Amino acid sequence: MARMTLPALPEESFQRVLCVVAHPDDMEYGTSAAVARWTANGIEVGYLLLTRGEAGMPNPPEETARLRTAEQKAACAVVGVEHLTILEHPDGVLVYGLDLRRDICREIRRFKPDAILGTSFEVEAPWGFDQADHRAVGLATLDALRDAGNRWVFPEQIDDEGLEPHSPRWYLVTALGPRATHGVDVTGEPLQRGVASLEAHAAYLAALPDHPAPADFIPQFAAMGGQAMGVEHAVLFRAHDLQAPPEF
User: Fold this and answer.
1) Parallel, antiparallel, or unpaired: how do β-strands 170-174 and 115-118 relate?
2) What gap in Å lies between CA 238 and CA 113, rounded to an integer?
3) pLDDT at position 2, please?
């Protein structure tokens, strides 16, 4: 049986999207093309990075952190992201637990998004074994979704910091293949801006041996997504409507 064309993500129900990742550049490997479309359509997008990526280059860590922070700011500007929060958890050795959940919960309560875009917390990814920081942040993000709506979880954020409980409706994870449920058409300018956002990490990419040029592989992945959606280029997601009745 031929697979049905994936539907478009119901982005008309979004006003704010918070993207939670581990490192500078994590959003730019394809997903930022969808962000470019969202911001062009008036959706406010915020990024929360749990680390400064200081373990990702051979330079001294503080020098790398400054460099990668600057490159991330430039990448955000390319796709219209004005709300960028970068925390200083240690790069490369993130551990799932209350520290990550607390900080992600705080940002959810601050930004009040309709949708959270997180990373997968599974060990295996389509390209091989996923990196440990990605998994830790992915699982902490999933739990922080519920934490943020519960007044009695991290109550000091409410009592002392003046924040309020908040429950996003949508939980999104970038997906490939049969696990994807929805797509975002990024044909044309959104894809071009997505490519340019990864190119903004020029020094980081230059430090990676034999790394392909963004313009050589980002469109290829987007074309694969486009086939699933019936358009030229697309970014695919597994979308969970947290307000929908449970399926049995």
Assistant:
1) parallel
2) 18
3) 42
The DSSP code sequence of the chain is -PPPPPPBP-GGG-SEEEEEESSTTGGGTTTHHHHHHHHHTT-EEEEEES---TTSSSS-HHHHHHHHHHHHHHHHHHHT--EEEE--PPTT----SHHHHHHHHHHHHHH--SEEEE----SEETTEEPPHHHHHHHHHHHHHHHHHH-TTSSTHHHHTT-------SEEEEE--GGG--EEEE-TTHHHHHHHHHHHT-HHHHHTSTTPPPHHHHHHHHHHHHHHHHTSSSEEEEEEEETTSPPP-
Q: Which residues pair with 129 in a beta bridge?
A: 124
Q: Which two tokens stand for residue 56?
A: 């990702």
Q: Compute CA distances 224 → 133, 221, 228, whole Å.
A: 26, 5, 7
Sole residue written with tokens 């875009």: 117
Averaged pLDDT, 82-109: 97
Among the listed residues 36, 108, 38, 48, the one whose alpha carbon sits nearest the alpha carbon of residue 77 = 36
Q: What pTM does this model have?
A: 0.94
Residue 62 Ramachandran class (φ > 0 left, ψ -120 to 50 alpha, else beta): alpha
pLDDT at 120 over 90: no
Residue with tokens 């982005």: 11
Specify the pairing of strand 16-21 against strand 115-118. Answer: parallel
The pLDDT of residue 159 is above 50? yes
Using the CB atoms, write b or e for 2-13: b if 16+ within 10 Å: eeeebeebebee
* pLDDT-derived band at 194, boundaries 50, 70, 90: very high
pLDDT, averaged across the chain: 94
